Amino acid sequence: MSTIENRQFKLIARPKGMVKRSDFEFASAPAGEPGPGEVLVQVLYLSLDPAMRGWMNEGKSYIAPVGLGEVMRAGGVGRVVGSRDPGLAVGDFVVGMTGVQDYAVMKAKDASKVDPRLAPLPRYLGALGMPGLTAYFGLLDIGQPKESETVVVSAAAGAVGAVVGQIAKIKGCRVVGIAGGPEKCRYVTDELGFDAAIDYKNQDVRAGLLQFCPQGIDVYFDNVGGEILDIALSLLARKARVIICGAISQYNSMESLQGPRYYLSLLVNHARMEGFVVFDYLARYGEGMQALVGWTMQGKLKAREHVVKGLETFPQTLLMLFRGANAGKLVIQVADE
Amino acid sequence: MSTIENRQFKLIARPKGMVKRSDFEFASAPAGEPGPGEVLVQVLYLSLDPAMRGWMNEGKSYIAPVGLGEVMRAGGVGRVVGSRDPGLAVGDFVVGMTGVQDYAVMKAKDASKVDPRLAPLPRYLGALGMPGLTAYFGLLDIGQPKESETVVVSAAAGAVGAVVGQIAKIKGCRVVGIAGGPEKCRYVTDELGFDAAIDYKNQDVRAGLLQFCPQGIDVYFDNVGGEILDIALSLLARKARVIICGAISQYNSMESLQGPRYYLSLLVNHARMEGFVVFDYLARYGEGMQALVGWTMQGKLKAREHVVKGLETFPQTLLMLFRGANAGKLVIQVADE
Domain check: are B16 and B153 in the same one? Predict the structure, then answer.
């Protein structure tokens, strides 16, 4: 019988508007034992993602909502501390949906081995994880950027946006990022090599896009929705592609969600707006990871992680995403490596 | 010198909201004389289209706005009454952008000959004209319907919608129309062969779509925008295609235009929303006309025109479109055949 203590955040109420501490219960239970084909994973880092807000809502979506009383869903990287599967050994590092807890019993087939010598472990939750794959498939498969086209990405310093812009540069595009604050703007231009950045908190986004996209926007990768999506739609080039990846400005106010008022720009410009979630590309994750790791090794794909220590900080750390308070991929460090 | 009197509607003010009589001047001038390569056309029928409302607005679009003081732009069918081009003879019937007037001097290359033995002349402004081509390219090129998929079209009894639904039936789809009033609904089901129709003036559109599209909507062809677009978005099937062809509910209130609140349905369903205007397909008009005429000859493509007599009725007849008061393609008969 396991005597390892396992702290867990369980969802106990469906949030109305912004997530609150009282939507969760934080309690301990003994860590489970792996059955045949299973492993016990000690969680080292947890991924905090805007999509988590959607998983807390009732109702049909691309994935079932987290049930009330269940451990909150989250991706994580951890160390195998017990194994009843020949494919994974104690001491291996894996990534998977561990949930917001110290220890997770997982099916071995749902835990992917990762190599800590190729990249720091938290990167497998960011540029080399779901956000990186999201950027890869969304930009290349839906956006189909061509050399010398103008690509605009919102939340440009975020986990997805930073990878979108760098892949667009690799493909020979002009890249304009939209981010909040001068520090994030400097990061995407000076460190990541974007051609320009617009600080939506201190600058006029429309004026900036007019300046940096004199021929209009060929590809717009949207992570935010709301007013910035409207402005981008109003400045599309002919045959533009708009990728709907997220809408972080709207996730805490779905009842009064603002639709894109300039959607008729699609009509006059023969443009296309298409949405996706990364799980749609499950069968091609291998291809995506190969490309992302390759670019990382060549120094063409940079990333940074914003690490907050302590599982107990989960509810307030999650809120940093919606304030844009994180610099890079937001993760919680649950235990020392 | 011509002494033929030519009555003309000129745009003299940019309408605010709904079009008013006072936005136009109705006056006479002598009909012009055709120069080399030109023809003089007596207009017999004029096409009234929702798109006309957009042409009256200032600002960049897919086509230049009608200038103040210029004859209002319109498609028309007419008889050649003077020709200085070897390709067209007096007595030929042609279709082209004649403008809202009795007589038009046109370049012969901008006037396409039509055959009055194949179909009644007004049909070349409807099912065998721009609306028919709009339906053809929008549905087939953008919508790409596959056999047994569910296709929904709004303004289903209108000039475009009626052709969309019939082509979808030809392609083996289940077709649901949305139209205003029981008469239009009976028309699309009983005369045009749609599988079902929903009367948005008297029925709950959402309940109707849930009933008739139990697997969700695979292709939604939108002519109306506003609330009906919202409802359709909320009921998309996976990998659905939404064709943005028009937004007649919004054209007279562009300043307060309502964006599609359910656009995140594109994200969760990996769906696509794409706009177009028929002029994008200029190079393929021949292909489209061949198909439309062929289906008409085979009795698979039916149409009806709503004919109002008298050029002088133009401003008030145009308003019928926005009230949905027309049954079939709305045309003005300017002169007897």
Answer: no
**Does residue A102 share a domain with residue A165?**
no
Structure tokens at B280: 């994008």
For residue A288, tell me if it sits in a domain.
Answer: no
In whole angstroms, give the CA distance from residue A119 to residue A128. 9
Read off the CATH number of the domain in which A319 is found. Answer: 3.90.180.10
Q: Is residue A43 part of a domain?
A: yes
Q: State the smallest CA–CA distance between residue A252 and chain B in angstroms.
A: 14
Say how far apart CA A91 and CA A122 lie, in whole Å. Answer: 17
A259 and chain B in contact, CB less than 8 A: yes
User: What is the average per-residue pLDDT within A12-33?
Assistant: 94
Region of residue A252 (left: phi > 0; alpha: psi -120 to 50; beta: else): alpha
Give the lowest-confidence range in A195-209, A236-250, A300-314: A236-250
- Give the separation between CA B55 and CA B52, rounded to whole angstroms: 5
Interface test with A, best of B263, B277, B282 (most A CBs within 10 A): B263
Kindly determine whether residue B264 and residue A245, on different chains, have CB atoms separated by under 8 Å. no
Pick the residue from chain B with its C-alpha nearest to A261: B259
SS3 of residue B78 by DSSP: strand
Residue A291 lies in a domain: no
Q: Do B108 and B157 fall within a single domain?
A: no
Q: Alpha-carbon distance A151 to A161, whole Å?
A: 11
ipTM of the complex: 0.84
> Which tokens sit at B167?
């082509």
Is the domain of A103 the same as that of A236? no
Same domain, A134 and A269: yes
Q: How many domains does chain A have?
A: 2
Task: Please give the DSSP secondary-structure letter assigned to residue B284.
Answer: G
Structural domain that includes position A326: 5-125+304-333
Measured CA to CA, the distance from residue B242 to residue B39 in angstroms comes to 41
CB B164 within 8 A of CB B140: no
What percent of chain B has a predicted confidence (pLDDT) above 90? 88
Alpha carbon dihedral B326, B80, B105, B114, in 10-degree steps, equals 50
Neighbours of B334 (CB within 10 A): 24
Query: pTM value?
Result: 0.89
Question: Tell me, what CATH number does B222's domain have?
Answer: 3.40.50.720
For tokens 């909150």, the residue is A72
Report residue A230's pLDDT band, with 50, 70 and 90 as the boundaries: very high
Q: Are residues A142 and A39 in the same domain?
A: no
Environment class of A221 (CB within 10 Å of its CB; exposed 0-12, middle 13-18, buried 19+) = buried
Which tens digits make up the pLDDT trace of B125-158?
Answer: 999 999 999 999 999 999 999 999 999 999 999 9
For residues A181-201, average pLDDT: 97
| Residue-wise DSSP of A193-258 | --SEEEETTTS-HHHHHHHH-TT-EEEEEESS-HHHHHHHHTTEEEEEEEEE---TTTTT-GGGPP
The pLDDT, as a whole number, for residue A254 is 63
Task: Give the best residue of B250, B256, B264, B280 to mutate against chain A (max A CB count within 10 A).
Answer: B264
Please give the Cα distance from A50 to B124 (Å, whole number).
52
- Three-state DSSP at B64 gives coil
Is B43 found in the same domain as B9? yes
Are both B79 and B118 inside the same structural domain?
A: yes
How many angstroms separate the Cα of A298 from the Cα of each of A126, A170, A301, B40?
Answer: 18, 11, 8, 68
Residue B284 lies in a domain: no
